[in-house]
Amino acid sequence: MSNTPWLGSVAVVHRLPGRIRLRYRRHPDAPAHGAALEAAACLLDGVETARANDRARSLVLHFDPALTDGDRLAAALAGLTLDDIAAKTARTDDGRAAVAAALAVLLGTNALPMGLRLPVSLHAALPLLHHTAADYGKNGITSHVLEAMAVSISLARSDFTAANTTTFMLALGEYMENSIARRSDDLLKHLLRPTSDQVWVLKDGVEVQIPATEVAVGDTVIVGAGTVIPVDGTVLVGEATVNEAAMTGESVAVVKGRGDAVLSGTLMEEGRLGIYAEQVGSRTAAARIADYVEQSLTAKSEAQIEAAKLADQLVPTVLKLAGASALVTGNWRNAASVLQADYSCALKLATPVAFKSAMFDAGRAGILVKGATALERLASADTFIFDKTGTLTTGMLDVTDSITFDASFSADDLICLAASVEEHYFHPLALAVVNAAKATHNHHFDHAEVQFIVAHGVASVIDGKRVVVGSRHFVQEDEGIDISLHQPVIDRLYQQGKTLLFIGYGGKLLGILALKDSIRATSAETIARLRRAGAKRILLLTGDHRDRAADLAAALGLDVFHAELMPEDKADIIARLSRDGARIAFIGDGINDAPALAGAHVGIAMQGRRHRPPDRRHRPVGGQHRPRRRRQGTGQCRHGPHRRQLPSDRGAEHRHPGLGGAGPAVAHRHRAFAQRHHHRHPAQRLAPTDADRPLERFHAERNR
Ligand SMILES: Nc1ncnc2c1ncn2[C@@H]1O[C@H](COP(=O)(O)OP(=O)(O)OP(=O)(O)O)[C@@H](O)[C@H]1O
Ligand SMILES: [Zn+2]
């Protein structure tokens, strides 16, 4: 019966280039196993994916037309035998049954009558021997051969306990490896493909629900709050906040409206969008990333490759040793024990299992590890470098003081002025200021285009005068604003452990905002555990003031700190330490740390915070952009149509911001840096090409 065809009949019912749908009839004896049919179909030459519906007796195949065609596939399927299917289903079984059987044999054999012990033990060892024969044919002498020899010799000597123990241990090892591999694969699917099966699309003005697999390019997909966006595309209507952490690593939600690009796999937090689908199914960015992670999970780590090599190198030595001991002592039992004591298979087995289970555990704790290599590098790291804001501290700051040096500005006015220019940015300081403004009269100051200078602050023009908000370095050294008059106040605030923001207006220091950050509750314990785990050096690199860095380093017992750094300074320090042989793990919050992350041995990005955009204004849905509606206060905001200020556009907007045009020239290396590295601002993580391309396509479509 094993050569009975699995399918009674196979007929092609629908053809498309690279895709066919088949109708089949199962042989009455064949098991109802759609998954097995899919798996078997996937083994055929040229088949890319297979989807079976056993109840509808339909099988959809996607294939490479260069390699095969529909008729050839139908014929190949008709030729499948029950044996083929059985082999395939056996492989999808995780080996639990084999373990149970081996255990039963191990425990029960000695109770059997003498005559039965050999056949029972032999039967239990058969899969191993069978497997080894196949492996020997393919790979020559490997550790499998040793295992099989150990079992065979024990069987030949009627040492059934030894034979059965080996069989059982090998089955157990295989089962453990399979089940851990499957658990981590399930987890990955959960992490990366949380998309639901059903999707709403707009058909002739009516919203209808269709299976996710049937969404086509050009459909208008409707996505509501709390759901994962199923396609890559461009927003046609609506406004929403989208958390793109799964795709860009940036945890700050971004506002998406008409014309903006959205990515599959990202989460709609609030709002509702109609999206023009441009990439669907396996071509979406989410599917590609999932593939990437799956690949890196299966890609062997260096340790795995080393272990496998070592194991196979040990084989001839062990064989010689076994032969020698048999010759010298004249006892085959000694040879068997040498073979059994061969740990090469344990070496091979233990490494992938250890890596996969570590990745699985990390995943459950909310940590996505990009492959075994990353874990290996982390294990070998001896120098841990942290940035400050949002990493060792919570990054959720409160404005504690607002001090103005101009009598016509109240403390609240100062906060609102700073908030007016900061409101489009997601830097922790910007978010704090905007938040503080909400608790005041929240007046919006009209201003010109805002420039963002990485690791410095922001600048704009209000009533014809240049306004700058940022670090002391930015305001004093780059903008040439004299702050010496107010040094006593500044010193006092620093002594109170506060982070300061300087606000310059018309070339003068208008005021200072003091902010208080708090150390993360878990930081001290984390540092202590790193030390216990053998970290040699723990450093702090920050863009903030020296006093802040010193306080924090003292509080947490860090070895070294460097303060008032530009992102490229951080990268320089890391490069220097690496040259001196340090193996560096860099831990940042993902804001402005791309250069540093790139130079480290291994990078860790924390995404603990979940911020809403500072302000959710309503843009008209559909039609033209009207100047944005103001929240409170009077006057008209002049920074033009709002969408030009959206994060995704900021790269283009600020690439030639005419720095220094309105105010004092900012003429030193930092400006060049700000422009050069502009794309590294987290809000611009999406490659500009990715953001631009769909928009062009979308316009082309619309104008047709
Ligand atoms: N949007 C902004 N608004 C105001 N000031 C800013 C802004 N972005 C950066 N700055 C100023 O530039 C300094 C350096 O910024 P950067 O982001 O490099 O480091 P940081 O905020 O100190 O965090 P970390 O400790 O993680 O390096 C900040 O301390 C702040 O004074
Ligand atoms: Zn500078």
Structural features:
704 residues, alpha+beta, Alpha-Beta Plaits, Rossmann fold, 7-stranded antiparallel sheet, 6-stranded antiparallel sheet, 25 helices, disordered C terminus, binds adenosine-5'-triphosphate, binds zinc ion, ATP hydrolysis activity, HAD_sf, membrane
Biggest sheet: strands, sense, closure? 7 strands, antiparallel
Report the principal-axis shape.
Answer: flat
- Find the count of extended strands (DSSP E, 2+ residues): 22
Structural class: alpha+beta
Q: Mean pLDDT across all residues, rounded?
A: 74
**Number of distinct helices:** 25
Strand content: 15-25%
Bound molecules: adenosine-5'-triphosphate, zinc ion
Helix proportion: 40-55%
Low-confidence stretches: 608-704
Integer-rounded radius of gyration = 33 Å
Distance between the termini: 61 Å
Protein name: P-type Zn(2+) transporter
EC number: 7.2.2.12
GO cellular component, one term: plasma membrane
Region (Disordered): 606-695
Characterize the structure shown.
By secondary structure, this protein is of the alpha+beta class. The relative contact order is 0.08. It has 25 helices and 22 strands. The model is unreliable at 608-704 (pLDDT under 50). The two termini are 61 Å apart. Among the domains are: 7-92, Alpha-Beta Plaits (2-Layer Sandwich); 98-190 and 301-353, no CATH class; 381-392 and 519-605, 3-Layer(aba) Sandwich (Rossmann fold). Bound molecules: adenosine-5'-triphosphate and zinc ion. Keywords: ATP-binding, Cell membrane, Hydrolase, Membrane, Metal-binding, Nucleotide-binding, Translocase, Transmembrane, Transmembrane helix. One of its GO terms (cellular component) is plasma membrane.
